[in-house]
Amino acid sequence: MSTQAYAVRDSATMLRRNLRHIRRYPSMAASTVGLPVVFLLLFGYVFGGTLGAGLGGSRAGYIDYLVPGILVLTVTAGSVSTAVSVCMDMTEGIVARFRTMAIARVSLLTGHVLGSVIQTMAGVVLVAGVGLLMGFRATAGLAGWAGAAGLLLLLTVALTWLSVAFGLVADRPETASNLPMPLMLLPLIGSGFVPTASMPPGVRQFAEYQPFTPVTQTLRGLLMGTPVGHDWILAIAWCVGIGVAGYLWARAAFSRDIRP
Amino acid sequence: MDLSTQSPAPAALSVIGLGKAFGDTVVLDGIDFDVPAGTIFALLGPNGAGKTTTVRILSTLISADRGTAYIGGHDLTAEPDQVRAAIGVTGQFSAVDNLLTGEENLILMADLHHLERAEGRRRAAELLGRFELAGPARKPAATYSGGMRRRLDLAMTLVGEPRIIFLDEPTAGLDPRGRRDMWQIIRELVAGGVTIFLTTQYLEEADQLADRIAVLDHGKLVAQGTPAELKRLVPGGHISLRFADAAGLDAAARLLGDGTRDDEALTLRVPGDGSVAELRTLLNRLADGPAALAELSVHTPDLDDVFLALTGQPQPAAEQEILR
Q1: Which of B20, B53, B56, B81 has the highest number of chain A CBs within 10 A, making it the mutation to test binding with A?
Q2: Range of the domain at B245
Q3: pTM
Q4: What are the pLDDT digits (tens) for A73-86?
């Protein structure tokens, strides 16, 4: 029997292993939602009044503007924990054992990806819940919410594969936690917290053409009914591109000989 | 030098001209050996000789630069998955999942070998009992002692019932009792028809366990043979006799004929392996004469002696500490 035929079964086994790890070592998962929640509280209750007025509205209006950006930030925060846990796992002897067994090679990676996607999406739900408690009122119906969930899932899968690659090429966990850091900054230097139109030239061009702005704009459109234009095409294209590149990079990094 | 005739049994492992370099450093410089099915083969050598690299290549973890190997009849480079299906590996460094319990680790292995759920649980329970891990089965592996961890490691290797097992320094860091337990387990495995390839720094371990030993030095095999064949190469084994006075030493030296005497220490060194029969003969001969024997000690050949005999140079000083 070919080992590839067992890819799904082996991936499910590896997923069970990773979910156990998350349960036994919950501080990593907690840190994933900690930062977005702090940002949500900070920007909602501390800066929100002024920023809301700047946008020609109120604090309540700013929270409606802010939450889609924070949800994107939550996904990027999950990348750090994915990269660190993959890197730490690679230093464990058990991974060398897996490599000497007749199992589908990619299953170790898909197990990590599925586990991280579940963890990150749980974080997204939690952060969205905090947003709702703070007064976030989406104009979207069921279809809008479903579309938003689908887009966040697509973004999470894409960034998780990229983070798995980061975790594989990093020589130690500190490096692994630094590599995805720029991803966490990108929603800030985009339309996540303030409109790009308010930024000086240069920064504004960067903000408009980086991948997280179309994603945020599409999400905002789905939840708040703001105009999307063709941002949704760009958003999906960016996610698919990042995901495929991340997957190929991760697969190549994993199939290399282990370090001597 | 190959000291014995080839065994007619089919080879579980066949290695031809295996070579590996990391950058400019040649780690394996073309090694050849065969391991007949159902036997124990020991690769003996000091740290840095290339033992772990050999295990890593043969267990498909890294690729060789040159040479071929057949494991369980499968070509290592062309059919790595078939090789992986035939082997089990317990490395030098613990390969257990620290966040999982002992039982969960074993069930993880059963799942990855695609066993039925009930069969996987049955085998996990059986191995936990056999390796005296039933008590801490529900505790995380991170809390296990070194010996327990090593037993869990080997138990995990056995879940898939491999026909060929690689053990990289299986007793390194174990206390004497742990070492004897591990030897017993290895002997039981071979009694069940498994082929074992083990690496060790200890001549005594290779001597106790192996059917054949190959000595690896700086990436080259400097000798191969049965333990007895190897020890015959080593002149280091001797019995040291100390006498009460010079007259006794003189008398014994005359009586025994061969031997190296040290007049200052009043000792006489006679070659020998220290077997009971040999000692009895020696003592009987001395008892007939006037020599008053004060003390007797037996020196068996150790890895230092093997190395001195085979390579003409002692091992590097840094490694001698560990080996004594």
Answers
A1: B81
A2: 238-299
A3: 0.80
A4: 999 999 999 999 99
